[in-house]
Amino acid sequence: MLLANVTVRSVERPSPSFARIELGGPQLADFGVDGPLFDQRIKLVFPGPQGLPALSAENWWSDYTSLEAETRGAVRTYTIADVAGAGAETRIVVDFVIHPGAHGPGSDWAQQASPGDELLAVLPRRGTVGGGIEFEPGDAERLLLVGDETALPAIHQILRELPERAGGRTGAVFVEVPCAEDICDLPVVDGVEVTWLPRGERAVGAPMMESVAAHLGFAPMPAAAESAAVEPADAAPPSADDMPWETPTYSALGEAAEEVAPPVDGRYAWIAGEAGMVTALRRHLVGELGMPRTQVAFMGYWRQGVAMRA
Ligand SMILES: Cc1cc2nc3c(=O)[nH]c(=O)nc-3n(C[C@H](O)[C@H](O)[C@H](O)COP(=O)(O)OP(=O)(O)OC[C@H]3O[C@@H](n4cnc5c(N)ncnc54)[C@H](O)[C@@H]3O)c2cc1C
């Protein structure tokens, strides 16, 4: 693991819902992943009222959590959208979603960022075995990638690396974005069909549920029943730490981890985005269609109306 001081090198607004920010710094010379990046996640530490916290590389998390919550800033998870340069000139690109309505520290920072602004980044260190990549299709021949705007950077990177790193597969990709202007060029992969779903005024996850249901052949619950099943009316306010997170080798639901086995019917599904949408899709795919857990990765990236805790 590498804790790096990084500085904003450039800011672009490629579409209404995204800020594309390039971060650089000499310490990124030690950043590296042994293999494809796919959906490699990183942590970013945003400054609080007193600036960036002082954290040690070895114990950055315990150092951070021991600081006063009001002044220590905030930590959020992002995806490496791209990497440019090399050595001390290495830059990482992060595509930040600019949320409508309620803003958090990550979205706020990205909206106002300008060259020279500083952050701390926690990333994989070159030459060490790190975590943070969940896209592991194994030998699966048919892929299903499902994500909303927060998962678009990961989907982009997966498609960019797929032909070289895991080519020869067919698949379907569904991406829900806030508006039609957010539709962008994704790498074209033979046999992989991309469906864009601009949300407009509809509820988060609604266009996705409809399209994936039609693709896989299940009947989605009506929206009201769906949200009641996801968040019972009398449930305690959900914690951001209770994100659905279930991959072939890990289950936040506490189910026993399974050996990663070859997919029984050649399918692999990678699903990431708003927690309610992810949970509802899991119920249909695993509960209703009987897709084995060894062939699915379901990951809640954010929860509507709930700020991350860190
Ligand atoms: C593995 C992983 C990879 C991720 N990659 C990316 C990435 O590349 N780019 C990216 O932008 N996000 C990404 N996310 C999601 C990001 O961590 C969350 O959206 C996070 O909540 C943003 O922090 P914030 O401070 O802006 O908002 P918070 O303080 O966490 O939340 C404040 C309010 O904003 C709302 N909110 C949070 N996110 C969104 C959203 N996307 N749209 C609308 N409302 C929202 C919350 O519901 C809450 O009401 C990723 C998450 C994970 C787990």
Describe what this molecule looks like in 3D.
The chain is α/β, with parallel strands linked by helices and 310 residues long. It has 2 domains: 2-123, Elongation Factor Tu (Ef-tu), domain 3 (Beta Barrel); 142-302, 3-Layer(aba) Sandwich (Rossmann fold). It has 6 helices and 14 strands. The strands form 2 sheets. It has a 7-stranded antiparallel sheet. A 7-stranded mixed sheet has the order 10-9-8-13-14-11-12. Strand 1 (2-15) and strand 2 (18-24) form a beta hairpin. It is globular. Bound molecules: flavin-adenine dinucleotide (FAD). Residues 41, 74, 76-79, 95-97, 99, 102, 104-107, 149-150, 153, 301-308 line the site of flavin-adenine dinucleotide. Flavin-adenine dinucleotide is lined by residues 41, 74, 76-79, 95-97, 99, 102, 104-107, 149-150, 153, 301-308.
In brief, what are we looking at here?
Helix content is 20%, strand content 29%.
Summarize the topology.
Blueprint: E1 2-15, E2 18-24, E3 41-46, H1 60-65, E4 74-79, E5 82-84, E6 91-97, H2 105-112, E7 118-123, E8 142-147, H3 152-166, E9 170-177, E10 192-198, H4 206-216, H5 223-230, E11 245-247, E12 250-251, E13 267-274, H6 275-288, E14 296-302
Parallel strand pairs: 8-9, 8-13, 9-10, 13-14
Antiparallel strand pairs: 1-2, 1-7, 2-6, 3-4, 3-7, 5-6, 11-12, 11-14
Flavin-adenine dinucleotide binds at residues 41, 74, 76-79, 95-97, 99, 102, 104-107, 149-150, 153, 301-308.
